[in-house]
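Issue 218. Parser rejects a valid record. Input:
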Amino acid sequence: MNQSLTQMLTADDAGIARAASLLESGLTVAFPTETVYGLGADARNGTAVAAVYEAKGRPAFNPLIVHVAGTQQAQEYVHWSDTADLLARHFWPGPLTLVLPLREGHGLASLVTAGLPTVAIRVPAHPAARALLQAFGGPVAAPSANPSGRISPTRADHVMAGLGGKIAAVLDDGPCTVGLESTIVATDPQALLLRAGGLATEELARVLGEMPGQPEAGAITSPGQLLSHYAPGAPLRLDACAPVSGEVMLGFGRMDCDLNLSERGDLTEAATRLFDCLHQLDRTGKPIAVAPIPEHGLGRAINDRLRRAAAPR
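Output the parser choked on:
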């Protein structure tokens, strides 16, 4: 794989203009969001979207998130709801994805939705992502910019390590600030939590007046629902108090370990560091033991990612 085939772009005016031009040409561009780096393609161009699946090795039944510049643009593609309006007013731009019914004549490529009658859509908060979406002027389908099922990228070098030579360009604007994928909520007719993520469930409950419901088990209704996902190459052992022989240790709180998500026990810091730490430990080639993470706030999303990473493959 020749990584030199992938352009490295700086997130200045020239780099953003170049990235937008590549998207307009039907090519794939990785770009930063506040959650993780996404691998973007014109969501209206089926050939471009297919290139995203090909680069990632992503199962075609796993739908993609569409990124747009604002609420008004989102409403061009979906039937809006009161719940969606409430959540968008409070949390957009930000790490929240809403799943809504598609409008007739929406114009999105069928591969984006994996044949579902709904689409996952969000307005990112990252300045470079917003500038790119404004420059491009259309919807960008973008899953995380990593080989399917592997650790999500929070830095440009993570993207290059996994997809260098397979995509047109990477727009580099440093590390992501949230470090976990977006929270996904279905909003028609009621709010259902489809994936815990960078927006804590308690924040959703504060605005909704109650905790969002849970979907029926089994069906893939949004991105990020595959059982085995976000996985390093080596096995992961969860809820470990200490490593066994041959393991490296990912800690939380004050403890002896190889890398620590947060010595202070801060879940926001842990979320930001999770994928970067997994990338670093995965490079050792050794099995990874992971300390227990509290099951509240962003801890729910962290544990969700860890359980999927540790699932049988």
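Fixed in the parser; the record now loads. The first strand starts at residue 7 and ends at 10.
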